Amino acid sequence: MKNPACTVCHERLDPVAGAYQSFGDIGHYLDQFGGKDSLSDAYKCPECYGGEPGSTDYQEGDTWYRDMRVPGFEGDPAETDFQDSLQWLAQEIVNDPRFAKATVQFWWPAVFGSEPLLPPLDAEADEADQEIRAFNAQQALISELADDFQASGFDLKSLLADMVMSPWYRHSTLSNPADLESRQVELATVGRGKLLTPEELDRKNRAVFGRSWRQWGDGTNPHTIGLETAFVGQWAPYTTFYGGIDGAVVTKRNRNLTPLMSNVAESMAIDLSCQVVIEDFNRPRLERKVFRRVDRDTVPGEIIRTQAALRGKVDDIGQMVTHTIKYDARFVGGATKLMVTDLTRDSHESVDSNWTGAELSVRSITLLRNGAAVKRYWGEDFPRTSGFSADQWTDDEGRQHWRGHADNDGWRMHPGAWVEIETDLGAGDYEVKVELGSSLMRNNVNDEMTAGLSATATKNIGQTASGKAARRQISDIVLNAFHRSPTNAEIQTMLNQLTASATGAKNRTSWFRDQGNHCETWAIWQNEELDHQGHLDRYGDREGMMRGWTTLVHSVMTSYGYLHD
Which of 73, 146, 315, 390 could bond to 101 as cystine, CB 3.0-4.6 Å? Predict the structure, then answer.
């Protein structure tokens, strides 16, 4: 109380602290017995705690310590006309002419993502003139905002709106490109994106993609305090790792990405992107949060996608029933992939205890225009046909083998396999005719086999209905994530990324989980128990498109534009 080195601060701070006299050590109002004050029992009754009787200045009715400076502000004691000294303090602070400007500076880091500028320490430094100009310009804006704030009757909503609408927040381009070099220091904090706090990033995840990282449930669990995620909730284990504060030890936020924070963002994207995709594609389309324009098997450039039931059974797997599938389609010109898929399920399940099987052969694929054959591909020649690819399996030594083979009847596939070739046609209307052979054993549980036929353009993709849908879906994701429409070049780049990732995934496996993918779907569907069919319906990814969309969502979540405002 008397040491000058201490009193220089305490004579100003202690009266302000005293204005909080009605609140106890943990912030509760009038928290002592009887609800009359928040003074320590040891102060009111020292003898009760081993002290000397009569050694206190306390008197009945006191609400503050008599050996402390009286509650007040800037040398003025708190008036007793107010119900509570804290109300008086608030009014005094608001009436102070420094209040409006201090409020602007208080909110500045939250809005602009950087601390208010300070004048340079060395006015003779090389870039001091730029620092001085930036400081003066910012101070002028702060003063203008403060005046408007005061004129609005201290309307905080109005102030925040003015800050966001100010040139310092909105300007991100230069009319003179040369200024980027000559005024780099001066313009360093103008219009730059603000790094989102962990809490803001968590809300953005839920707003854009429908869920957040390490989200457990939907926040309605009565045994938890609100929503629990990696960034918010009772535990929020990654908040401080991503530059957040805990209010105790860590009290200053990181305003720039550190290597640790970048790794946290990468981990978030890896975990969350797969959850977003698998959860959304398992919702009815009208209830989806993200993918409302495409389905899990919508392949950009797809021209044909159809199925055919192949009836007829045989007594021996070497026998065959022939079928013809015909489909009319408009080709967009250029290279087009033609695929036949065996969609029959439970091919080895019999109605008795004997072995059974169901195999599909592609005898030929013919393309006709105006009734005349333009191109014909024989199944037995598929391995020598341009663009040939087929389903594969991997042996114990890591070697891959085709799930099918060529014989005199065509290309004979293993159960559930697919085969693909490529053709090149001019744009126009064509009839696609596929000759198939089915070998469905009589004791098989299936009454028929199911074959799928698809044709997918690899050139002029944007002219197909599926290509247009994929482009619109990409545009929707970018608009929601970045609050701007993407350019055509950006859409094309992301479309190329999507198709390349999906093609690679399709060639590896027809399941969503591959290459050690440990997507934590247990956080979405707790206590999940699925039979084989249910597992296939949920995690089947024959075209690789769900994994392709996962790659795209991951790239969005780790981008500068997503992590910054």
Answer: 146
- Classify 301-463 by CATH class: mainly beta
The dihedral formed by the CA atoms of 61, 76, 147 and 107, expressed in degrees to the nearest 10: -50
Structure tokens at 124: 């003779």
Condensed to tens digits (0 to 9), the pLDDT of residues 169-228 reads: 987 677 787 877 788 888 888 876 789 999 999 999 999 999 999 998 776 676 666 789
Q: 159 to each of 120, 136, 143, 193, 558, how far by Cα in Å?
A: 28, 20, 12, 20, 32
Q: How far apart are CA 444 and CA 387, in angstroms?
A: 34
| CA–CA distance, 457 with 336 (Å, rounded to integer) | 4
Could you count the other beta carbons within 10 Å of the beta carbon of residue 299? 28
Angle made by CA atoms 262, 263, 265, in degrees to the nearest 5: 65
Residue pair 208/559 in contact (Cβ under 8 Å)? The answer is no
Paired tokens of 118? 């300070």
pLDDT tens-place string over residues 349-402: 999 999 999 999 999 999 999 999 999 999 999 999 999 999 999 899 989 999
The model's pLDDT over 337-349, given as tens digits with 9 standing for 90+, comes to 999 999 999 999 9
